[in-house]
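Researcher: Please predict.
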Amino acid sequence: MKDFKTYILELCEKKEGTEVEFKSAKGGFPGSFWETYSAFANTRGGVIVLGVSEKNGIFTPDGLTEEQVGKYKKAFTDCAHNKGKVSCSLLMERDVIDGDCDGNKVIVFVIPRASYDMRPVYINGNPNNTYKRDHEGDYICTQAEISRMYADADILAQPVDGKILKNYSLASDLDDTTIRQYRQLFALRHEGHPWNDLDDMEFLKRIEGYKVDRETGEEGFTLAALLMFGNELAIRDAVPHYFVDYREKLSSDPRIRYTDRVYPDGTWVPNIFQFYSRVYPKLSQALPTPFKLVGDVRQDETLAHEALREAFCNCLIHCQYRMLEGVVIERYQDRLYFSNPGTMLISPEDFLEGGHSICRNGILQKMFIAIGRGEHMGSGADTINKGWETNDWPDLEIKEHFGKNDDRVELTLWLQKGSVESRVEMEESRVESRVEIEVGRVETRDRIKKEMKEFPSITLKEIADKLNLSVKTIEKAVSKMVADGEVVHDGPRKGGVWKVLK
């Protein structure tokens, strides 16, 4: 390890943010330490520097003594192993480092990201005291966020998409055309398979689209069946915020927003199978297809096509469909972008290393594999990077975005050696994509109107805080609502009131 002073100075260069926190310990071991411990553990991990305070980029050491350092390390160890204080102990001895920086004693705690089966990490013996980290600091999680962590922790015993749904029927809630098309693909891949002779209900049972809980006797269609084969109304009844969106942005003309788009517009059945079937051909047009004969048959598939299927299917099977935002796929001249709500169940480092596989929606994964889509799912980045290497394209980029109720996983496949400018543009488009999703939602507008009716003098920042959305999202949504004649602001900018017109 580099010398301690250099290490501390490098942390100061990063300043406080998503992965670094400075805390004063003048008055004793800070109680807020454990909120940050929980927040780092439930997001991507981080470093807590004890004995230094930071304000406006100015760092002030506490001047801790050797005696205080020993006292604080003991206080940490005692609390870390007390489940009444924190739900699990994550640090090993090597993760607690103390040293001297220009005569000032400092303690560094390296908090690892908790594994999916240890989350939520909470404090004071109460799961309601669960925190997460975003760029603004530590924030307490909502009940929905906590419930999703518990569901992920139990993923091996009960996949999220294995939930049995009540009061859904084959005739009224599943799409006949989708089932027929899926079965045709299954039959082509598994010629002579005994399942090909079954009726639709029996076939769905075999692929876990319909299950019976042997302990309770409860039976019904699984969430996986509804997502894969359901009609729009049935899906939205089970997953109110379900949304899938493909955007093609191939024009250099700023007046052209999209050159193509596929989203639930009422002209097609927007289940996952139909979304994949419509979008994959559009994405594959971005890949070169060299002329090649295998025997006397033209071979149009390349390793890059296999990689593309892997990336697309991974986006769909690892998605947390019960969150506010939806799946977003975008095609640009120089890249393909995949984004799904939810966090990764393994770290990005483990994903890039390969050989690790934990799937949030295990039944959906099996359904795709059964028709030859995403054959190597779970292989990490290996399959994707191997396919991309054949065209001398860069390795994939993967990023987790943590926010208040809008956790997302974002994967980018570059179609050429991306310039610095295009990567900056990509980051801006990511933010814009998240904003566009919320602005377009009827639910978002209704929630804004509800706040305006109840609190006419409310500010846009206050609305953003209440709805756990960014100020930019609220500003853009309200601007559109004003333009559409839904709301109006009466009076001066400061001190006026909102009126809901429709």
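Model: The radius of gyration is 26 Å.
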